Amino acid sequence: MQGYDVTAYFLDKKAAKGDEKISAEYRGLTYRFAGEPHREAFVAAPRKFLPTYGGWCASAMGDDGSKVAIDPANFKVKDGRLFLFYKSIFANALTDWNKNEKKWEPAADANWKKLTREEPAK
After folding, report:
1. 29/50 Cα distance (integer angstroms)
2. Among 27, 55, 58, 107, which lies 20 to 30 A Cα-Cα from 85?
3. Whole-structure pTM over 0.90, yes or no?
């Protein structure tokens, strides 16, 4: 998550950098938070805030099942799920996702399960 607060996407509806002094561990990873209330929300229900597809680009996961790095500020929250996307000067994977979402979301779920043997975060 490159230091971004996973709860801010849901609680504040925006991407926000976390503070390294306000953190919590879950499944061997350290998560940072913008404030103590965010950390408390995460500790109470961590799975609720986990990024879908482990924080990899949702479009790439849906298109061909590949792991592509994301821009943490390029995101979409839909139906309680946090989707993250690649972005550069030349490409915005969120735009591609929005065009192909009905096809790519179930494909990404299946690709993630095949890749990790785990259900994607929901």
Report:
1. 11
2. 27
3. yes
